[in-house]
């Protein structure tokens, strides 16, 4: 519905409702402000103003396209909420951060209509659009504006059941125009909830200070936050950094640092959730990772969304790549129940908005309902904490996914909210499948499957675990396989020792590194491999056209080589990280392999005796786990309420 263009300062709904609450005069709640990045941050501009002038193609059309050049002048960004549109030019706010994800609000909240308020200076046009679940755009309104004007539009959300966004474009007249501010609002008398923000950190003090600074600098976020808690588990303390005293003074009583031993992410976030639930002053805990760059507007959007949800809902933020700022890791994270494996839904990540903007990415216009959201940014209502408990004491990996699966069983959904996001250190710069984290990948996935898999014997999880064992062993990666076997033994011991293991497991894993050359990095430049072995060595196909499946033949050949064939030391190669795939390494007797970060290299050496021993052990442990699956599942499920209770965690905090 078109409400009209209002020129008078006393016109309808011209009051500035606070994003952290309602407007007492108009009964409006700001759902999201239109925001812009710092003018110097040109790498993220495509997330705020959509550069893509194409008409479609979706995510599949990204290959081979290049981002437009010269689509915006950085010096035209006038502030956090304002931008200049030069004469005759057009800017679209149909972007990730500034379009309105109407279908999410339609499905999960009580909002029935959204109100767009746009303040402009100068002459030009405001064009209002919406899309459907396949991304087809429809122009709802075109409004000519002159001078200082405040344009108001109302859009019913009834047609956004399966998907769709709303957005606006500005087209400047002959003298140009400016966007002074814009916001998406809704009629609401629901009081704004307060949140406690919690950062868990381990020796990333500089990132923490930047996040604290971003929160301190945004007065609207400060209004919405009761307290910011930093759980510092490292030995390079946040409080010892040069910038901390000034930030602490500026934050006043809103900043609190808790120093505790390294209990992992689950231990740090459990502390935040426990402190929030027991304080009685916040109705939400918002978990933030330590190695992020924060978009503060996302905090306000998550709180507004949670306030207006029909039922208590976990509200997650998306994760962008810190070093390639326009790239979204995943639009929605799923857990495949049969494989019991996490990851983005098909076609939902990674996605580069500088290559394919929101308007031309049709797959992103459908509403995608997530199974869980990573704890780089995640809002959890206190009511859910009281009913579902605290995280599993599993250090890292699967704590966030398991928590959402547990909450869903109690009737509490998880929504990954578009437009709420952080930038996080890229997964591409990590290779946690071959370092000490391989233990937690294996153990915690199996524990989560025991707790939540709907399939007998966990579906395919044990078969995939065995496939991973083969790949490590045939790739001469004996350290990760050793600790994966530790993980299997620990799962078989049952849930009783999980809290005690928080403190002693990581030291055990790190102590083993020196015994395995594939886990010992040489950081000298001369140790880095030269050449690119692996190119042209194809992955064995599961089936060739007209042939029987070939995995069996390849596995048998690799098994014979790595268990029985003497080590010739003739097949030695330098292998870059990019080329260090299992189908490459399995052909070699020795390799010098670069790590994911590019900071060093490790020596892989084939050892048939080691392979025979580990194959026998993994076969025995997998057989035992298969046989005992039902009894273990019952034991873990029975123990779950106790080991995730506040009382159990409080004992762990006190012992630490």
TrEMBL record:
InterPro entries: GlfT2_C (IPR045699), GlfT2_N (IPR040492), Nucleotide-diphossugar_trans (IPR029044). Residues 462-654 form the Galactofuranosyltransferase-2 C-terminal domain. One of its GO terms (molecular function) is glycosyltransferase activity. Residues 1-27, 523-545 are annotated as: Disordered. Keywords: Glycosyltransferase, Transferase. Residues 78-186 form the Galactofuranosyltransferase GlfT2 N-terminal domain. Pathway: Cell wall biogenesis; cell wall polysaccharide biosynthesis. SUPFAM superfamilies: Nucleotide-diphospho-sugar transferases. Its EC number is 2.4.-.-. This is Glycosyltransferase. It comes from Arthrobacter jinronghuae.
